[in-house]
Design brief:
529 residues; alpha+beta; six-stranded antiparallel sheet; 23 helices; 6 strands; 56% helix
């Protein structure tokens, strides 16, 4: 904010002018040329050895060496050269390297029209759907071949850091595409070179092991996304069609009742990559033996996009419930049996969070019932001066916190009186709602209400509600509130309505707006309207 203030002052001053290099050079063209010393850098006293050898430049971690850098560079160079040969031999593009360079136009705009125009311009024949997928996969192979040379992969002290692991992930994707396109596995030779890159962390051994443990696991394929789609059927708001990252998924599901409270569903899904157009149609069957246990999802390819019938779903369910479960599932799905551990990490975290949220809502409902049942007892214990049992007290604290947060989440007009009553009950029962969670909800509430006014104009009821909230939390409770974003939004609201406009507003509104400004710690000078 200090920098923003400084730039604003400079921009409005006659003493200095803000500019950029391009504008400056247009007024003051270069007067001489210099020759840059090749193989030099600003961050390595040894030229560019930081990116290819065991020089002393790094983070300075005590006892760490850089012996891994040269083998990592050698591995990437080997892979780059083999991928280049395969790319040139494909015969699809008029000028392979020109097409590779111009592929940036597709990366920036992956619309069907743009992709087709690019392929028409860079290939000599009309491509079939399969050939289009092949062409785009070849270009993706080369894109990953470039990405695996990202500078920071060598910049720091240890090969197991996130940066070297990331360039290995690019390499893994390039290897995967080469195998699909040419049926050539470059991974064994690549790993042989990586094995010569020693880690500073003894248990991780070398680059080959790090690749297997951290990089290779980052691969995502059609079957994994089909398993992810199937697992989303556990959610209450399951959607038949949606996108996740660069994957489009559409399908159907049949859910069946099971004994012992298990969850079972089965269906079909088509998964398509937005990047290469590669797609596949799969049947999935999913069982969750009980709450808190991992799901088991079987995936197999199918040729028919006809929705699964209830009878077909029951046949799949029988496989999971049979005494010969393992044998029958292997016969149906082979090794393509997935748990949450096999789903891509970003999607997995999101899914687990949503599944847990469903369970939390059910638990909250049960806890509320407990607190309601003990309502009179809590009141009686309070009158006697006795403390309630710890477990009942914890339930009451959790439920009162949830009730207050729920009222704050009504961003139109939060129930101030209801919030006050909840705090009064908490005080009477001698229980303490979770201040941290409530403060976050308070910040969200006032930010949303101010955002709404920035977009649609002043609302006296909303301003009064905001003042009541500020009086309650910062006045009565003296809580330390995060007002940073609210202050910015209030300032934006003032900027949209200058003093002349504000003077035309009703006095009641101006007074309420002034009161809010003072509560948000604005000076009187800023609030002259």
């Amino acid at each position: 904010m200090a920098l923003a203030y400084c730039l604003d002052c400079l921009d409005n001053s006659a003493e200095a002018q803000l500019t950029i290099y391009g504008e400056f050079l247009s007024f003051y063209p270069p007067e001489s040329e210099v020759k840059i010393i090749e193989n030099s850098s600003w961050s390595c006293a040894h030229g560019v050895e930081r990116w290819r050898s065991d020089c002393s430049c790094g983070d300075g971690t005590p006892g760490y060496h850089h012996k891994w850098r040269e083998p990592l560079r050698d591995a990437m160079n080997f892979l780059r050269d083999r991928l280049a040969d395969l790319f040139e031999s494909s015969g699809i593009f008029n000028d392979p390297w020109n097409a590779r360079d111009r592929y940036i136009d597709v990366i920036l705009d992956r619309s069907e029209e743009n992709v087709n125009a690019f392929l028409e311009e860079n290939t000599s024949t009309d491509l079939t759907s399969y050939e289009k997928i092949t062409a785009l996969s070849l270009l993706e192979m080369q894109r990953n071949s470039l990405l695996m040379f990202t500078s920071c992969g060598w910049f720091f002290d240890e090969i197991s850091r996130i940066e070297p692991v990331q360039i290995m992930r690019y390499a893994a994707r390039a290897i995967e595409l080469a195998k699909k396109l040419f049926n050539i596995d470059l991974e064994p030779e690549f790993l042989k070179i990586l094995a010569q890159a020693p880690s500073n962390v003894p248990e991780l051994q070398d680059g080959a092991k790090i690749y297997e443990l951290k990089a290779k696991q980052g691969r995502v394929d059609l079957k994994q996304m089909a398993a992810y789609y199937g697992t989303t059927s556990l959610l209450k708001d399951f959607r038949h069609e949606f996108s996740e990252g660069c994957w489009d998924m559409t399908g159907d599901v049949v859910k069946l009742n099971t004994e012992f409270g298990n969850f079972f569903s089965a269906g079909k899904v088509r998964v398509r990559s937005q990047i290469t157009g590669e797609n596949g149609l799969y049947t999935f069957a999913l069982i969750q033996p009980g709450k808190g246990t991992l799901v088991s999802c079987g995936i197999c390819k199918t040729d028919s996009d006809k929705p699964l019938t209830v009878e077909e779903a029951k046949e799949l369910q029988a496989l999971f419930e049979s005494e010969d479960r393992e044998k029958l599932l292997f016969e149906k799905f082979g090794y393509d049996q997935y748990t949450l551990n096999n789903i891509p990490s970003n999607s997995r975290h999101k899914l687990i969070s949503e599944l847990l949220q469903q369970d939390v809502q059910k638990l909250e409902h049960q806890l509320k019932g407990i607190v309601d049942n003990y309502d009179q007892l809590l009141e009686y214990l309070t009158l006697l001066g006795s403390k309630p049992p710890a477990i009942i007290k914890m339930a009451a604290e959790y439920i009162l916190t949830s009730e207050i947060i729920s009222k704050l989440e009504d961003f139109f007009y939060p129930d101030i009186n209801g919030i006050k009553r909840d705090f009064e009950i908490a005080n009477f029962w001698q229980v303490q709602p979770d201040e941290g969670r409530i403060r976050f909800a308070f910040s969200d509430c006032i930010n949303e209400m101010l955002t709404g006014m920035c977009m649609s104009g002043f609302d006296i009821e909303a301003i009064d509600a905001l003042n009541d909230l500020m009086t309650l939390f910062s006045g009565k409770f003296q809580w330390h509130l995060s007002l940073y974003e609210a202050q910015n939004l209030y300032y934006e609201l003032l900027k949209k309505n200058d003093a002349k406009k504000l003077k035309q507003e009703p006095e009641k509104l101006r007074n309420a707006l002034y009161k809010l400004g003072r509560a948000l710690k604005f000076s009187d000078e800023m609030l002259k309207f």
